[in-house]
TrEMBL record:
GO terms for biological process: positive regulation of ribosomal protein gene transcription by RNA polymerase II. Pfam families: GCR1_C (PF12550). Residues 96-167 form the Transcription activator GCR1-like domain. This is Short-chain dehydrogenase. One of its GO terms (molecular function) is DNA-binding transcription factor activity, RNA polymerase II-specific. It comes from Phytophthora palmivora.
Length: 202
């Protein structure tokens, strides 16, 4: 590097000491970080710590929300369960249509037997009378469900009317036993016909 100002023509600027000083200064200047880089390096640890704290607080918030949601869900389920377990079976029904309605959609204000069985299993049945009554009606539920699966294009009310027609003046309990016999024999045979076709031949 050449210095053209007359001042630098002085012998001191040609000494080994100055030359060493000059080279050291040039080296330091070339390796000194720019101000924005210094600020960035100082800011990164602070930002990193803020992000870490934000993640921690967010995780705690989500955990709190999840706990509250679980408690709310549990309270709703317990409340719903306490109400739904009050289902009163209608022992006096004599029509296939009413028995099926009680099972499939429920007769207001009661929920459906199907939903109670799926949700609570046997817990909703308060005593042996409820259990016995449920199993007396179960063949009616089962055959209608079976025919619905076999004849998907047939309206549900038509299937119910079909069995009500075949019940005629037979009591519902006796008709349920007849359906149970038919269903049992139908299942153990290798039938190529539908249940209704099989039932018509009995």
């Amino acid at each position: 590097m050449q210095y053209h100002h007359p001042l630098f023509q002085h012998s001191i600027f040609k000494s080994d000491m100055f030359t060493a000083f000059r080279d050291d200064l040039i080296q330091r200047v070339s390796t000194t970080p720019q101000p924005e880089n210094v600020l960035l390096q100082q800011a990164i640890p602070i930002v990193s710590e803020d992000i870490r704290e934000l993640r921690t607080s967010t995780a705690r918030l989500f955990q709190h929300i999840n706990t509250c949601f679980e408690r709310l869900t549990s309270d709703i389920k317990d409340n719903t369960r306490s109400q739904q377990l009050e289902l009163q079976l209608r022992f006096g029904e004599t029509l296939v249509e009413m028995a099926w309605q009680e099972y499939s959609v429920g007769i207001p204000p009661n929920p459906s037997v199907k939903m109670m069985e799926k949700t609570f299993g046997t817990l909703w049945r308060k005593n042996n009378t409820d259990t016995q009554f449920y199993y007396r009606r179960k063949p009616i539920y089962d055959v209608i469900e079976l025919v619905k699966s076999e004849e998907a294009g047939v309206a549900e009310h038509e299937i119910v009317e079909y069995f009500e027609f075949h019940r005629q003046r037979m009591k519902l309990r006796k008709f349920s036993r007849k359906l149970n016999v038919a269903l049992t024999s139908y299942k153990i045979q290798d039938n190529q016909i539908s249940f209704r076709q099989y039932f018509d031949k009995m």
